[in-house]
Amino acid sequence: MCKTHALSVASAKAPFEKTTIERRELRPNDILIDIKFSGICHSDIHNAFGEWGGGIFPMVPGHEIAGVVEAVGPSVTEFAIGDRVGVGCFIDSCGECEYCLKGEEQFCTKGYVGTYNSLDYDGNPTYGGYSQKIVVTERFVVRIPDSLELDAASPLLCAGITTYSPLKHWNAGPGKKVAIVGMGGLGHLAVQYAHALGAEVTVLSQSMNKKSEAFELGADHYFATSDPAVFTELANRFDLILNTVAANLDVDAYLSLLRVDGTLVNVGAPAESDKYHVFSLIMKRRNLAGSLVGGIRETQEMLDFSAQHGIVPKIELIRADQVDEAYKRVLRSDVRYRFVIDMSTL
Known about the structure:
The protein is α/β, with parallel strands linked by helices. The protein is built from eleven helices and 17 strands. The relative contact order is 0.16.
């Protein structure tokens, strides 16, 4: 077994503490990764706080992992020692169902194995990227292009693919009017992807505070949703709305912004249930949808697309002893736009 330092929480809402965990010995298709950076995702907070139920404690969060290959098993063919690599939200799937065979492992019928707060197929709990090393089977490792710095690349492994995948699936591109709800960790990446895909991009944010940054990232329009008149002005305008916020919204108000056959896609996940009136859908044949992340193949596509178009998140690099405070700041929306932990400080 390989022992490594990690940050863990002993129970829901407990403070982080430095611990030692064990990683499995390398199997033939395994890769040992020296983790350099780990992004903080809002879902880390939901899980560490026990807000989504089913938390497995002690918990080591983190599924935005960027690092360097330290060792490989004898059957590994795609990676070598020294390669720059990443690991995202899951680390195993059955590999045999229709979705796995299509490269959509996130919908595995057996159930994918999460990078953390999950049980592997042998019943062992998984521990995530708030650690210095991780062992992952080759099939779930992606290559980080040389033009992307590792610290900035780490949030792409969740925030990047979470926004890229629905924009591609719902055909954001030339001739499409796309609105991004929220300009946070997810939203500021969604703006960049939608722009690079060729769509006309509008940001819908609570206030005007981030207007200049939105335009710098590629937005064509910006509106503050705190002004009720905005919903009248923008009625029936958009082909696609991507909701990136982890808070409950007036769903009917946002549905009213869609054209006929338009779609509101949710990637933010509030703890409480949303409500809407079915007539908001019926009268304009609108769609209300959700999206998880993307499969491994699409995650690699996203990284390559990001490198090609110079898309990276704006990050604030923190030490390992600053994670508790970073969580508080995320809940106050006091970050622009993604915290990344320098794992060398652990």
